[in-house]
């Protein structure tokens, strides 16, 4: 009953629907209904994000803190909080509670030394049920510790207008809570009164109102905590000069963009010092108009710090002749920011997707991914690709949700998220394919009309199974046997895993697919589904296929870490690699000092190793490679760690003492040598004592400045000083004791100096040289000399010079003029009594005397009346690439060479490259000086002078020294890459030597790769010798971008690499090239293929004129006549010689045969090299000289050092191209010498060489070879003599094919009959047609005896002609040859030989006359 009622209800419903509106017909109806269904089933993305995220907070104990958080969604989200990764239980927490907007309130922060429950990292977690979860950025809550001062203010004083610094150091987190009071009243800060980054107070331009009691205060949750009080006294204006002192040097800072940075540089001295700043050795504009402001007292303020501001800032203070410098680093760190945020994605099950996330920051941020608040752990289906992107393979329904990209570095973190929605298979993706879909899954279903669906594909089989890919084939479904309009989807998964992936065929009707990126030795399950325009059909039966096992090498060892345990050791740890079939046998740990290019390695059996013997406070990089039974695996990435610091291992250098007056001595020194600092130098410790009381030692600790003025000493007392450098670890070794004695009394400056003791003038044409000696009374201070001069009066011009100067050249004077000159010494009191002299300049025409001494050495002082002797025995000892020690002796000292007075030495040095280099000088108080900072591999000259009081010596004899070489410190420059013309697979790399080679370059290494980001040990290398600046690389892949780097090498090691230069090879082979890269025309054996270039055109008429232009028809006809004439004459000569040889008398023949029998013991000539050997002759038809050639007694003589050329190119020594060939050999590329310089013989017609007609000392394999070759043939030097190559180039008339003429190559039984009588071929002989060949130099293969070749040379008659072919008849039959040999066994008498030669000479002259005409 119920069933019938239901059927009636359904029927009435259908009738109502039919009559409600006109019914669409056919496919339209089905399509419309499907569209409505699709639209109703597509879900939209839900906006779900944070409105407010928590920020970092600094609090104090007992205060209340609010961590703000607010999230937006259509459904109100549930807010929870995490601390240090763990959810907080806020229900039962009395102090922490959740506010209505989602913020977290912490009442009365708890913090003590052993209990810190509130300090840590907080995250806000927002959840919407059935939608997903998102997590906020991480916020840090820092609780300031107990208020305490690390240093207290100390009483100090300052001159009116000067500066003062009051110290009050606290921990960095307490600095924002610090403030200052004066006389217990709050102190206002301004541009004159500053609070420095560490908390200290800086007062500049001090006035009387600044005097008072100062203290600093720390404000916390309770009562403020105060420091000790310190009094600041303001002194009246300074009147006497005071030494320049650095009160507060700048310290290194780290800032974020937008913050402010303050670098103090507080100095004291009189006159008031002038302070300026540089950044990276460039002057900073501090005029007040920009972000760089120079505040009072020399402090530099940088407003709105930018990333480009990072660098080394140097403060330079100058006061009179004193200069001080101090440096500090500004590091700018940038929190992570997103360049590309993840985008929302629609997808179907089994598809592959990629969430893109691109971030930037400094330091480089690390990225991790979250799905619904949980960290995504990389696996086979969740992979991190391209550093930051997340790839999800084979989607399943449970992959839906919210994915977040979390980026963090040392100074912050940020998050960005996107939503993934997985639609049903019958629901179309509503948008075009986003970029985050991979290429394997770019199918997007569109609404399809209803209709029959295809059945299951048939006979699915795996036709190819490898270790990492499988090829599947199948037959179309039975429902559509043709299957032309069907596409297929192949679903596959690992056995036992329900996450399927999909691969689609690329075009309709295709019934095979290649599934790649599989795992070796793994079982996969495949099924195939056909799809037509109506939709997907039935699935095929499941097919299980196991991939092949793979000889797998270990992967990179994960989690490699390195930390320094001591100043000379680093411990490296790692874990077992995840991949690799077979046990790990051992590991190899590679390490290298940063900046070097040579790795060291050590074998390790476990998962950690400690490397010892390292340099102190030096950065090293480490990597690990695992080994199994198959070999080395994949290297880990490099980890960099710096060894710990230590006390310096060497003392400071070049300690010098300068006695300033009776109570002070100035110490100056240089830092310890590079590589011995063992850390950051924090200061220097000075120890000094009286020489008479060695137990009484006083210490003075200064800053990082390189000088110190020691005051308060006793008059006329000798003191010893030593200096040691300090790091945070302690004090290093000290210098040797250096002594100096203070003055008994200070020089008098209460009156003006006396008159100079002498004045001399020397007039020239337009100048006057003035020289003088100082006043005799040297107890009065002389600051300098004033020179007055003029025509008739000395008051027209006045020039002041230094007190050390002893002469001056007055320039730009009028010739033949009377000048009056005056000289006065002066000091701070005034000018002394003048000394007068007059002189008349020489006339303009007077060039008789030129003062070369003055011209060439204008700064060499004229010795005093009692000059000091210059130092002697100056020697230069080279210590390193930048350091030379200068030693000398002083004959004015006692024999023990002990310095007991206040003398000092001045060392000067220079190099002549470049020529205009100026001298550099330095002072020393000992008999040696260490010159540092020199250039490597550079010749320097050194000289020394001594100064005592106001007396100085001349410069000593010079000593020379060349610093050691150093690895190149700059890469090769001007690197260019070009394609070789006509050879697209070959490129030519050109470069210039490094600017800083630091030695003789012994070689270069060219690195090239198709991946610019590949590890350098994965690049292909090409070594090049050091005298070359170009190289060619062959057999590259067409249409491929290559990257090239070049590294220079000298005897000390490898220099830095050049920047990568990109070059893309051409897309296709050159259309102008012949097969096998040969030019047109036949190449004989032993010749290399020639590259004629794309612009080559074959010569007209088969020949070229001497200038390369086509020959005229008249020349072609003349050439044809000459060729025919030469052929006829040659035949006549051959016939005459043959007839003459057959006309010998029988008796004469018998006599000669008997002679042969008596010698050989045989009636027949056997062709052996042991038979009669007539002398080999060189026959020059120009002179017809007989030149005997030394013949080896060996029956199978070996070729001498200079092999005989074996082809037409080899016998063409007179050619312009040879000059270019030689030039190219001098500037050659490897493997490139001959190709570019060779040219076809057709292009050489204008230069006719001597024709070399080869003869062999043994019978050949075959008489004549007359087959032209178009392939590159092997060398002919190690094959029987008949295997000669044919000459190249067109020799025949224009209508004939270019073909080399045949070359007869026979053993001569008589030197004159050898042109026509071939020998009998011997039975067998070595023949190797595949030996290598080199043009113009035939190679001799080891193990294959080479026949010595004799040649007959036919010269020319004074003018150039086209090459003349030599036509030789073919070898006769064996019987005829035997008969001819029998006739040839007899030899000529000397008179017969003379007649024959005279007759042949006449024939040759006739031949020359014909060819010349």
Please outline the helices and strands.
Blueprint: H1 2-20, H2 26-41, E1 48-52, E2 57-59, E3 65-67, E4 70-73, E5 78-83, E6 86-87, E7 96-98, E8 104-106, E9 120-128, E10 132-135, E11 139-143, E12 156-159, E13 164-166, E14 178-182, E15 185-186, E16 193-195, E17 201-203, E18 212-218, E19 225-226, E20 230-235, E21 242-248, E22 253-255, E23 261-263, E24 266-270, E25 274-279, E26 282-283, E27 292-294, E28 300-302, E29 311-319, E30 322-332, E31 334-340, E32 345-348, E33 353-355, E34 358-362, E35 366-371, E36 374-375, E37 382-385, E38 389-392, E39 401-409, E40 412-423, E41 458-465, E42 470-475, E43 487-494, E44 501-504, E45 512-515, E46 523-532, E47 535-539, E48 543-546, E49 561-566, E50 569-573, E51 586-593, E52 600-604, E53 608-611, E54 619-628, E55 631-632, E56 639-642, E57 653-659, E58 665-670, E59 683-690, E60 693-702, E61 707-710, E62 718-727, E63 730-734, E64 738-741, E65 758-763, E66 768-773, E67 784-791, E68 797-802, E69 807-810, E70 818-826, E71 835-840, H3 852-856, E72 872-878, E73 884-889, E74 904-911, E75 920-924, E76 928-931, E77 939-948, ...
Parallel strand pairs: 2-11, 12-20, 22-30, 32-40
Antiparallel strand pairs: 1-4, 3-8, 5-6, 5-9, 7-8, 9-10, 9-11, 13-17, 14-15, 14-18, 16-17, 18-19, 18-20, 21-24, 23-28, 25-26, 25-29, 27-28, 29-30, 31-34, 33-38, 35-36, 35-39, 37-38, 39-40, 41-42, 42-45, 43-44, 43-46, 46-47, 46-48, 49-50, 50-53, 51-52, 51-54, 54-55, 54-56, 57-58, 58-61, 59-60, ...
């Amino acid at each position: 009953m119920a069933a019938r009622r239901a059927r009636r209800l359904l029927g009435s419903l259908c009738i109502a629907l039919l009559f409600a509106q006109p019914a669409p017909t056919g496919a339209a109806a089905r399509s419309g209904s499907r569209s409505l269904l699709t639209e109703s089933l597509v879900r939209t993305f839900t906006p779900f994000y944070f409105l407010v995220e928590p920020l970092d907070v600094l609090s104090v104990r007992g205060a209340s803190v609010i961590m703000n958080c607010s999230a937006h969604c259509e459904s109100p989200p549930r807010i929870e909080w995490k601390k240090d990764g763990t959810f907080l239980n806020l229900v039962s927490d009395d102090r922490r509670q959740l506010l209505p907007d989602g913020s977290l309130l912490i009442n009365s922060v708890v913090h003590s030394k052993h209990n810190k429950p509130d300090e840590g990292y907080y995250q806000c977690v927002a959840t919407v049920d059935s939608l997903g979860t998102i997590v906020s950025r991480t916020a840090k809550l820092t609780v300031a510790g107990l208020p305490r001062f690390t240093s207290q203010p100390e009483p100090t004083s300052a001159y009116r207008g000067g500066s003062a610094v009051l110290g009050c150091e606290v921990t960095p987190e307490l600095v924002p809570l610090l403030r200052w009071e004066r006389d217990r009243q709050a102190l206002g800060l301004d541009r004159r009164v500053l609070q420095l980054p560490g908390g200290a107070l800086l007062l500049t331009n001090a006035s009387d109102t600044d005097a008072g009691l100062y203290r600093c205060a720390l404000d916390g949750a309770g009562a403020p905590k105060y420091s000790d009080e310190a009094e600041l006294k303001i002194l009246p204006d300074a009147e006497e000069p005071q030494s320049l002192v650095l009160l507060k040097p700048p310290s290194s800072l780290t800032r974020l963009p937008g913050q402010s940075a303050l670098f103090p540089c507080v100095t004291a001295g009189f006159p008031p010092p002038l302070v300026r700043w540089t950044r990276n050795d460039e002057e900073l504009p501090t005029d007040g108009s920009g972000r760089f402001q120079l505040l009072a007292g020399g402090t530099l303020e940088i407003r709105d710090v930018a990333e480009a501001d990072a660098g080394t800032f140097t403060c330079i203070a100058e006061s009179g002749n004193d200069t001080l410098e101090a440096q500090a680093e500004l590091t700018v760190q940038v929190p992570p920011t997103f360049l590309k945020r993840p985008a929302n994605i629609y997808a179907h099950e089994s598809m592959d997707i990629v969430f893109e996330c691109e971030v930037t920051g400094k330091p480089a941020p690390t990225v991790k991914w979250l799905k619904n608040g949980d960290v995504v752990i990389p696996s086979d289906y969740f992979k991190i690709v391209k550093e930051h992107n997340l790839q999800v393979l084979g989607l399943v329904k449970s992959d839906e949700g919210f994915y977040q990209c979390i980026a963090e570095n040392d100074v912050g973190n940020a998050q960005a998220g996107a939503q993934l929605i997985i639609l049903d298979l019958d629901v179309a993706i509503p948008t075009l394919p986003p970029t985050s879909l991979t290429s394997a899954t770019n199918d997007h279903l569109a609404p399809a009309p209803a209709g029959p669906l295809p059945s299951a594909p048939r006979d699915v089989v795996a036709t190819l199974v490898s270790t990492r890919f499988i090829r599947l084939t199948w037959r179309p479904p039975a429902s559509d046997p043709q299957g032309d309009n069907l596409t297929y989807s192949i679903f596959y998964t690992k056995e036992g895993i329900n996450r399927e992936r999909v691969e689609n065929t690329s075009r309709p009707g295709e019934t095979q697919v290649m599934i790649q990126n599989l795992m070796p030795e793994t079982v996969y399950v495949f099924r195939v589904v056909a799809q037509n325009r109506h939709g997907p059909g039935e699935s095929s039966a499941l097919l299980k296929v196991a991939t092949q096992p793979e000889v797998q090498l270990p992967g990179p060892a994960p989690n490699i870490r390195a930390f320094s345990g001591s100043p000379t050791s680093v411990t490296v740890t790692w874990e077992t690699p995840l991949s690799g079939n077979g046990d790990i046998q051992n590991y190899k740990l590679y390490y290298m000092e940063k900046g070097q290019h040579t790795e060291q390695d050590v074998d390790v059996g476990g998962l950690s190793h400690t490397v010892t013997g390292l340099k102190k406070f030096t950065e090293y990089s480490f990597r690990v490679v695992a080994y199994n039974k198959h070999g080395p695996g994949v290297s880990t990435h490099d980890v960099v760690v710096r060894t710990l610091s230590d006390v310096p291992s060497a003392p400071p250098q070049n300690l010098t003492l300068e006695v300033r007056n009776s109570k002070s001595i100035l110490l100056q020194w240089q830092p310890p040598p590079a590589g011995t600092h063992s850390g950051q130098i924090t200061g220097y410790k000075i120890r000094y004592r009286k020489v008479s009381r060695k137990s009484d030692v006083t210490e003075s600790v200064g800053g990082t400045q390189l000088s110190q003025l020691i005051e308060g000493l006793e008059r006329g007392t000798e003191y010893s000083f030593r200096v040691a450098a300090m790091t945070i670890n302690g004090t290093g070794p000290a210098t040797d004791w250096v002594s100096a004695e203070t003055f008994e009394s200070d020089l008098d400056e209460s009156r003006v100096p006396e008159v100079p003791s002498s004045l001399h003038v020397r007039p020239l044409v337009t100048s006057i040289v003035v020289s003088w000696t100082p006043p005799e009374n040297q107890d009065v201070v002389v600051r300098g000399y004033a020179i007055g001069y003029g025509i008739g009066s000395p008051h027209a011009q006045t020039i002041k010079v230094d007190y050390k100067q002893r002469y001056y050249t007055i320039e730009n004077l009028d010739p033949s003029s009377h000048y009056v000159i005056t000289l006065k010494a002066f000091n701070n009191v005034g000018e002394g009594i003048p000394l007068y002299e007059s002189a008349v300049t020489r006339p303009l025409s007077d060039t008789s005397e030129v003062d070369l001494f003055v011209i060439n050495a204008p700064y060499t002082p004229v010795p005093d009346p009692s000059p000091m002797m210059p130092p002697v025995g100056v020697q230069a000892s080279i210590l390193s690439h930048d350091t030379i020690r200068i030693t000398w002796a002083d004959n004015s000292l006692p024999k023990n060479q002990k310095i007991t007075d206040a003398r000092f030495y001045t060392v000067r040095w220079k190099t002549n490259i470049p020529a205009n280099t100026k001298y550099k000088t330095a002072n020393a108080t000992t008999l040696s000086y260490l010159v540092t900072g020199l250039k490597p591999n550079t010749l320097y000259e050194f000289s020394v002078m001594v100064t005592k009081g106001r007396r100085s010596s001349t410069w000593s004899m010079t000593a020379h020294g060349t610093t050691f070489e150093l690895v190149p410190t700059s890469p090769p420059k001007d690197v260019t890459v070009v394609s070789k013309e006509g050879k697209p697979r070959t490129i030519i790399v050109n470069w210039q030597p490094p600017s800083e080679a630091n030695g003789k370059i012994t070689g270069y290494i060219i690195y090239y790769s198709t991946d610019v980001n590949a590890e350098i040990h994965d690049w292909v290398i090409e070594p090049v010798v050091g005298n070359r600046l170009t190289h060619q690389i062959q057999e590259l892949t067409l249409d491929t971008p290559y990257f090239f780097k070049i590294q220079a090498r000298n005897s000390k090691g490898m220099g830095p690499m050049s920047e990568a230069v990109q070059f893309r090879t051409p897309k296709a082979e050159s259309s102008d090239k012949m097969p096998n890269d040969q030019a047109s025309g036949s190449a004989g054996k032993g010749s290399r293929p020639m590259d004629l270039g794309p612009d080559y055109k074959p010569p007209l008429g088969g020949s070229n004129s001497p200038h390369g232009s086509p020959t005229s028809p008249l020349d072609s006809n003349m050439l044809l006549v000459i060729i025919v004439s030469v052929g006829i004459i040659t035949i006549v000569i051959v016939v005459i010689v043959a007839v003459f040889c057959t006309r010998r008398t029988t008796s004469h023949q018998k006599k000669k045969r008997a002679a042969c029998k008596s010698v050989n013991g045989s009636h027949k000539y056997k062709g052996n090299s042991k038979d009669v050997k007539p002398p080999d002759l060189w026959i020059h038809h120009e002179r017809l000289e007989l030149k005997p050639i030394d013949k080896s007694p060996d029956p199978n003589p070996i070729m001498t050092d200079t092999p005989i050329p074996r082809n037409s190119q080899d016998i063409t020594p007179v050619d312009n191209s040879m000059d270019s060939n030689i030039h190219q050999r001098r500037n050659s590329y490897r493997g490139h010498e001959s190709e570019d310089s060779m040219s076809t013989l057709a292009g050489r017609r204008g230069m006719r060489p001597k024709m070399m007609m080869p003869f062999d000392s043994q019978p050949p394999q075959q008489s004549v070879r007359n087959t032209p070759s178009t392939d590159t043939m092997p060398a002919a030097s190690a094959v029987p003599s008949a295997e000669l190559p044919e000459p190249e180039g067109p020799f025949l008339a224009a209508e004939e094919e270019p073909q080399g003429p045949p070359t007869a190559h026979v053993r001569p039984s008589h030197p004159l009959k050898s042109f026509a009588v071939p020998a009998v071929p011997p039975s067998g002989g070595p023949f190797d047609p595949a030996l290598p060949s080199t043009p113009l130099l035939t190679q001799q293969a080891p193990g294959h005896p080479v026949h010595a070749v004799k040649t007959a040379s036919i010269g020319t008659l004074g003018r150039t002609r086209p090459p003349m072919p030599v036509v030789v008849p073919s070898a006769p039959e064996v019987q005829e040859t035997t008969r001819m040999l029998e006739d040839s066994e007899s030899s000529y008498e000397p008179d017969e030989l003379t007649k024959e030669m005279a007759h042949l000479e006449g024939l040759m002259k006739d031949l020359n006359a014909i060819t010349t005409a």
